[in-house]
What we know:
This protein is α/β, with parallel strands linked by helices. The chain has helices at about 55-60, 85-95, 110-120, 125-140, 155-165, 185-200, 210-215; strands spanning about 10-25, 25-40, 45, 70-75, 75-80, 95-100, 170-175, 205-210, 220-225, 230-235. It contains seven helices and ten strands. It is globular and about 50 Å long.
Amino acid sequence: MDHSEANTGSLIQVQDLTKIYRFAEIEVHALRGVSLKIQRGEFVAIMGPSGSGKSTFMNILGFLDQPTDGTYLLEGINGERLSRDELAEIRNRKIGFVFQGFNLLARTSALENVELPMIYARTSTPKRKEMAGKALIEVGLGDRGHHHPSQLSGGEQQRVAIARALVNQPSIILADEPTGNLDSKTSVEIMAIFQRLNRDLGITIIMITHETDIALYAKRSIHFKDGLVIKDRENPSPITATEEERV
């Protein structure tokens, strides 16, 4: 399938995307005219060496940065036309973020960490607690809601982060090296959660990884080098991961 010619109902449309960082008289071309489309329900791995542009691309997809030139649409929304507050609302409502370092609040329980996006969305307290509890059950931590991050393993902390990303029922989850701080067994369990969310809930997942073995769990891989997409291909037979029984 040629993703650049996919139908106009794409979740993500990127056309001639360019990003230039300027430092005094130095210009760094992080992206050099990237064009692609991602359909709703895909599970995509973004790969490439350091400095390839993959992190810049992910930041633009998450409305954390703006392109120098070109167009990025998420569900037809062009972030360049929105105010800072409107962008924050879009990020909170449509995008779930998962990071390598988990980014949990240390003095806050797992349940309260998962509630955070709903606080920004002004969801009522009873509804927040109900939805956060369901999200923790979804990732297998139904009995860990009152634990603090220091009482959880790295894999459990990442599950809390995934629950937090899920809780507002986003259109897309952006995961930046989600297994980078985890051992092999735990990494597979995290991939199993992503595959189940993608398969059963239809959530679109875009994941940066430098690990070829982890990319094999995705349905499609996009390789960046020197700010360009050098390879974009389907994975017709992704590895199926297994996870421990959910609580």
